[in-house]
Amino acid sequence: MQRPLSGVKVLDLTRALAGPFCSLILADLGAEVIKVEPTPNGDMIRQWGPFDQGISVYYLSANRNKKGMGVDFRHPDGAALLRDMALKSDVLVENFKAGTAAAMGLGYEQLAASHPGLIYASISGFGSRGPARDWAGFDQIAQGYSGLMSLTGTEESGPVRVGTAIGDLTAGMWAAMGVLAAYVEKQRSGAGQHVETSLLAGLMGLLSVQGQRYLSKGEVPQPCGNVHPVIAPYGTFETADGPLNLAPATQDMWLRLCGLLELPGLAEDERFRTNADRIAHRMELKQLLESSLRRKTRMQWTPLMIEAGIPAGPINRLDDVFHDAQVQACGLVESVSHPLLGELRQVGLPISMSGAPDGSVRSAPPLFGQHTVEVLADFGWDQAAIDDLISRKVVFQSA
Asked: Which UniProt keywords apply (predicted)?
């Protein structure tokens, strides 16, 4: 049984997070991903904390299942080596600033002229056209620019960033989907193509109903915190030991909630008869519901709500999440042996496929230059040529 991208060779020239997350998805799906890092220090993300025994946890989160090599990108022979590797690969992923890849002789048009079947994926901060094309792609800047931050937070807090680098991660996912679509097309036509996305485009692709509200009605949504913008009650409510998410999204669920909380009078209260009424009196309703919810804990209420057909669940911290029976039953955390850290636990690929082997974490994130000799040999260099490249510091192989 093979993984779906088994046999697909990906040259990964990316750094930081958006590009490496794209290639991580491809690697998890079975592609052979060659992560090329610039000498002398490798991917910039290796310098970002926190650290586990001197190794960046940030780096560990986005680089498993890859082979790692070090190359001097600025050395003419290094650029020539990368071009040769690109012409022998199925996919190339890059997230340089606009024009950088072309300046190294690694632009799409330059490579496609010799390798028309190449699928070439580019990830930028703000796209390859327009006045912001040269802006650096930093996640929080893109979160603000895309409007996503204006929807997150409360009236009191003002705009708040999402708690992960959602712009980077989203751009990586969109890029991976683009590569997969281009690969399907290549099976039909034999032609590769240039796939592009950006942090800005990726985040705007998530605006969903909030974006459509503006496009259709001219409404500018305001941050609504932990409440649903158009349904009430729907959001976060305090219990005896902390917050609980409730989502009684229909009128029938609302009536069942009133019964479960022993507040039947609310269903007949003129302030709360319809969803529109409840939105208009949202804060009054929240206080009344919490007066009853504080009688029990989050995990006492949750099964009662579920049994009553009312969607509900606790707001877990990450220590709760990783000890949760459902998370464990679904096998969402996997382990792999790391050469320096020993057992390394990671959140695996959140996709299971009946035609592929179980588990996605096959090899640990590589040490800087760990597989340079192995990769070059696989691409056709003989040992003498490899030794010469190492001696002249064109490439780096870790000890």
From this structure: Transferase
Whether pTM > 0.85 for this model: the answer is yes
Q: How far is CA 300 from the centre of its chain?
A: 33
Structure tokens at 5: 């991208």
- Matching CATH number, 9-206+351-396, of 2.10.109.10, 3.40.50.10540, 3.20.80.10, 3.90.850.10: 3.40.50.10540
Q: Is 378 a catalytic residue?
A: no
Query: What are the residue ranges spanned by the domains of the chain?
Result: 9-206+351-396, 235-321
Residues 235-321: name the CATH superfamily.
formyl-coa transferase, domain 3 (3.30.1540.10)
Catalytic residue selected from 43, 168, 387, 388: 168
